[in-house]
Amino acid sequence: MRYYYQKSFPEPRAQDKEEESMSEAVSKKGEKFHHPKGLWLSCIGMGASSYLKYAVSGIAIFYYTYSVAQGGLGLSDQDAGLIISIAGALGSLLPVLGSIITDRFLGLQKALIWALFFQGIAYLFFFLFTPNVPLVLVGVAINICSAAFMNNNLSAIVGLLYTKQDHSLKDAAYGIFYMAVNIGSFLGPIFGGMLTDHWMAVRDEAGNIVTYGYKYAYLMVSIGMFITFLIYLFLTPKWLGEVGKYPAAKTPEKSDGSPAKKEKLTDTDKKRILAMAIIFVFVTIYWTSYFQTSYTVNTMANEYVNLKIGSFDMPVVWLISFNGILCIILAPLFGNLWVKLSHMKKDPPVTMKMAVGMIITGLAFFIILAGYLSRGGGAVDSSVKMALWYMLVAYTILTIGELLVSPVGMALFSKLTPERFSSLAMSGWYLCYFFSGIASGALVAVTKVWGYEKILSVLGGALIVCGVLMFLVKPFLEKLIAMDKLGHEEEEIAASEA
Length: 498
What we know:
Layout (H helix, E strand, L loop, with lengths): L13 H15 L1 H4 L3 H21 L2 H6 L11 H30 L1 H22 L3 H15 L3 H10 L6 H33 L2 E2 L5 E3 L2 H26 L27 H24 L5 H9 L3 E2 L2 E2 L4 H26 L6 H24 L14 H29 L5 H29 L1 H30 L7 H9 L1
Antiparallel strand pairs: 1-2, 3-4
């Protein structure tokens, strides 16, 4: 890897010229070339990362709590919930530190290549050392630290491929990027579930699973990370060139060799940061509830949902894949809808979209609750199953809500953040997962005490209340966001200095 980074920082910065030339090529010849190759490399990285993450995220709770004989670690629900909450929280907090280190010392390219390599090492620990809990936790720690340089930096590179004026191209690029995430989230649980419940599972004479192939799913993830590492190692110099090659914190110089003056935050910038902080709170509550689909809802479905399709036992993690394929189908439809509404000047404000998304997601949890109660007042007998269609309808509605919150919010943060803080902007968006991870892990631990009926009611109710509150503060937020001033920041800076 040193081969690609042995060159010292150039004077003047070649990065600026390269990024400008690539962006101009996209802007001037967008109809012919559409997007630079760097976008596709970012999509490969994000798609692979998403695929491998979702291949094991759905089985994590079972891997931690199932007995050693069943292929797990044999931990209690409380210990498993603690590990999940800490890992989720740190995995969302550390990207902020990762962005600072990347901007100051590494550069995006080097950070991503090293992150992929250590991700492969981390998951290899799961395969090699199961059921040795201390060594598996070493793998968890390596995974958390290396992940701090992944998603946030991949998102930042997408933004660097375009100029600040390329609003439509950048929107389209982030839409493609989000599609890559969901392609991975669709395929990951399918292959992960087949590995754990079919291909590598050990069955008794009656056909019942005795030992699940959990560690083999982690082996698949490790191999996938190493393959992605090799792809980035060889394609990064060709497909990204100078973009993200050097630390962004290196101060550009003027033509006379003197340091360039750092721009101050304008009043509009400060108001937008306040708006993002308020939206951050709403999104944190949203993800706290949403994350329960991988934990509480996943566990409930495994116990109480009839997963038989004919003679085939569907792995419960395929429900996550269903969410992924719905995102793949619906995301471009929503994208086209926003474009058409924009041309008609009827595109609703971002805050309205997010408010509706939260309310819709809340309704999805109440549909799951209705299915659970259809078994007979919430009976605890796991032999009494709820129909699968409840889950399919709920996940369809949940996906619609997700598309009104997640990609819309990510694009908003990217647009509103001052350009020199673009790397930290994505970390700020992912930081909400830190607080969501803590709260979500706590909910996993109390589910056994509350029961599924109460937890589903709380999740659905909280989301609906948040959506209504966002409707109420929408005028205030839209005033802070000031979408009509986007692209005119330079004029405001010049006026303030006059």
